[in-house]
Amino acid sequence: MGGDHRLGDRIKTALTYASLFLACFIALLPLVVILMASLKTAPELNGGHVLDPPADWSNLSNYVTAFVGGGMLTAFINTTVILFLSVTGTVIIGSMTAYAVDRFEFRGRRLVVFLFLLAAIVPSVTAQVATFQVVNALELFNTRLSAVALFIGTDIVSIYIFMQFMRGIPRALDEAAVLEGAGHLRIYRSIILPLLVPAIVTVVIIKGVAIYNEFYIPFLYMPSPDLGVVATSLFRFLGPFQERWEVISAGVIITIIPTLILFLVLQRWVYRGFTRGAVK
Fold it and tell me: Running DSSP on this structure, what letter comes out for residue 188?
């Protein structure tokens, strides 16, 4: 019986590792194909098999062409500006909103929470006509502020993340600060905000990756090529580099690198944030 039990455990372990290996293989195979394509020359890519390795792994000419000819530098600058303003605004407004909803008792508090939930489940595409009219009336169309305003104003998920973390902060800290003469703004700045660091990092990563990969809003509200972001600039590769898939592949790898580095550096904060929010 003992031998059968050990054999069963070994089979389960083997199946577990096999399933993990298969999942990793399926997830990484497209990225590996794109990476190899970005290092190939045009004859190599058009005349060989998709899984054939490049002849020269140090060939970076496609990356130079994509970065310079594709306007990726301007795209990264625009993306960085929009990303910084949007994420900063999201953190400030979201944390303040969560603080007000969780700590203050006021008439219509449950209605506010319900409206937040309703806004989160309503498809955003259904309100695009009205949203476009509002952006145009505010004279924000074809400016970076149009994307910033939409990224900040349509973010409900971050508010819920902050609310989940707020419930884990004891109210006794607020009461002690009030006895010391601190106002609500001082309590928020000196007590609440430092304790929300795990939530802030989680929101920054989730929101940052979403903004970085966003295509629809910049494409619709910032049609000027000078205002192109990473996603729209990569899309415009289909014009001048329509037949040069090796250059397009290099552009894809260039856009992946920043998010990959950010996730690898801050991944422990993401896991900690999701785990802590799940057990509230």
Answer: I
pLDDT in tens, 258-277: 878 877 777 666 666 555 54
pLDDT, tens digit, 9 for 90 and up, residues 236-258 = 776 666 667 888 888 888 888 88
DSSP 214: -
Structural domain count, the chain: 2
Q: How far apart are CA 207 and CA 87, in angstroms?
A: 7
Q: Answer whether residue 54 is part of any domain.
A: no
Q: List b or e across 87-97, with b for residues whose CB sees 16 or more CB atoms inside 10 angstroms.
A: bebbbebbbbb
Tell whether 268 is covered by a domain: yes
Q: pTM higher than 0.85, yes or no?
A: no
Residue 262 in tokens: 């950010």
Residues 139 and 39 in one domain: no
| CB of 174 closer than 8 Å to CB of 187 | yes
Residues 222, 141 share a domain: yes
